[in-house]
Design goal:
Order of helices and strands: HHHHHHHHHHHHHH
Low-confidence stretches: none
Structural class: mainly alpha
Distance between the termini: 25 Å
Largest sheet: none
Shape: globular
Radius of gyration: 18 Å
Helix content: over 70%
Number of helices: 14
Length: about 270
């Protein structure tokens, strides 16, 4: 992989990991633009998750500290337990389906990506018109069954083009959260998943060899992902504090899906 590819992939990872437009879909599109899928593409994407994970930890550092205080000082386990409940379905699905999802046919199929982008985009446009469960003040009031609903939605994000943040924010809205609270919970619930992805990658000796051989390029891409990820989180949360609508993201997803399909048909 070349340095300019590492730059653009790191930037794409950082921006689209937190904006609900699908990082996996955009990374695949970017890889196609840069000249096609390289042999180490999947490994590279696994390790640039570190940059976005660090961005998430820094942005939510006060909130994470409060959760720790709640657990060990206030003996309030509600939010922590809900995050675990939300995490479990995706962990199980990921372990059972990882070989299929990571296969070159499925993960890189542009029609699959376009369909997933469009379907979640339509859901985003429809969310304000759909009936909701009883309204919650924030994610601290989330019940265990509703946390499980968001966890099941997170499983759908294993399909490339879906967007983990997009599917969980939509599910959060359906469970009674506003968009800002749904995004807060979605990002907090992604932390264990991202740690898990990194840990799984480090177990393999071939993965450790890849890190050793490409350390400088991975560090560079992670710095780009970290900086752009922090900016992206700030942008998304600032927007959702003012607006409760996912409409702009839904429109963008549908337009991009149509463009992808058009290019595939013209090949």
């Amino acid at each position: 992989m070349e340095w300019f590819q590492a730059f653009w992939l790191g930037l794409t990872q950082g921006v689209t990991e937190f904006i609900p437009v699908s990082s996996s879909g955009h990374l695949e599109v970017m890889q196609q633009i840069l000249g096609g899928r390289s042999a180490d593409f999947h490994l590279f994407l696994e390790f640039i998750n570190l940059g976005t994970l660090l961005a998430l930890l820094i942005f939510y550092r006060k909130r994470i500290l409060q959760i720790i205080v709640d657990i060990f000082v206030n003996h309030n386990f509600r939010l922590a337990v809900n995050v675990i409940i939300t995490t479990i379905p995706a962990v199980i699905a990921g372990l059972l389906l990882s070989d299929f999802i990571e296969s070159s046919w499925f993960f890189s199929n542009m029609i699959v990506i376009a369909c997933a982008m469009a379907l979640v985009g339509i859901a985003m446009l429809a969310i304000d018109r759909l009936p909701k469960m009883s309204k919650l003040k924030n994610e601290n009031e989330l019940t265990k069954p509703r946390a499980l609903i968001i966890g099941l939605a997170q499983c759908v994000a294993l399909i490339p083009g879906t967007s983990r943040s997009g599917s969980t924010i939509v599910a959060g809205r359906l469970t009674g959260l506003d968009s800002k609270s749904a995004a807060d919970y979605s990002f907090l619930a992604s932390i264990p998943i991202m740690f898990g992805v990194m840990a799984k990658s480090l177990i393999s000796s071939s993965s450790r060899e890849y890190i050793s051989a490409n350390l400088s390029m991975l560090a560079f891409a992670n710095i780009i992902a970290f900086v752009s990820g922090l900016i992206a989180i700030y942008f998304v949360m600032k927007y959702l504090r003012k607006k409760n609508s996912l409409k702009p993201f839904g429109i963008y997803r549908i337009v991009l899906a149509l463009i992808i399909v058009a290019f595939e048909l013209l090949k």
